[in-house]
What we know:
Blueprint: E1 4-6, E2 18-20, H1 23-42, H2 53-66, E3 70-71, E4 84-87, E5 90-92, E6 106-115, E7 118-127, H3 133-151, H4 160-172, E8 176-177, E9 183-185, E10 192-196, E11 213-216, E12 219-221, E13 227-229, E14 236-238, E15 244-246, E16 249-253, E17 258-260
Parallel strand pairs: 1-2
Antiparallel strand pairs: 3-6, 4-6, 5-14, 6-7, 8-12, 9-10, 11-16, 12-15, 13-14, 16-17
Helix pairs in contact: 3-4
Amino acid sequence: MVTYLDAATAPLRNTGQIRLYGEEGFAGMRKACDLTARCLDELMSIVAPGVTTETIDRFVFEFGMDHGALPATLNYRGYTKSSCTSINHVVCHGIPDSKPLKDGDIVNIDVTYILDGWHGDSSRMYPVGTIKRAAERLLEVTHECLMRGIAAIRPGARTGAIGAAIQSYAEAERCSVVRDFCGHGVGQLFHDAPNILHYGSASEGVEMRPGMIFTVEPMINLGRPHVKVLSDGWTAVTRDRSLSAQYEHTIGVTETGCEIFTLSPKNLDRPGLPA
């Protein structure tokens, strides 16, 4: 049985109950998510052939420190970096290192800042130099999946409507949806209820209600959907080594639809792609 509770009176732990935030929560999320979006905007001028993902990670840490925010991934369950950088066939949770990016790579950069106790979670794909048309098309399809999923968010609908919208478009474009990872509740906790699947039926999942806050973050593969996690315990890759892409927004459900908290202030939500 799914239960909902007022976030203002809820304990700061994942109880499996779904928190409903008021205007104070939405205001806090707007600030945290705006900072994350501004960091992702700034990375446009940093991502380039020859730049290491460690350099990117250092920038994410310093940008957060300069603005009074802490990267949520830093020391989270033993993770030692301030961001995740997932290149080419890495699906998610790629660990920044000293290996330089190459011309033609695609890289997802996932950033979550904690600002005044609120978590702003977002990621974008960045083309490195000149990428092949197949990679560009994957980025276009994946971003469209994200936006179609978000368009399905409204009070009274079920979270399965998000996944159904994503899956139907991705598969019509001859791509596949990763099943092993999902979106999640977010707010005063980094990961909270409910889980947001990126596939399924519109009749499945929990009812969306005003005040819910969660991420939508589809991972779309050019090949098959199967993934494996490497021996480092974090890095997930496609089993067939096909390219993978992901975009992520943090969303608040409103009385009439939803609010996207992590939109780019500079209209750079699709770096390197036509507006």
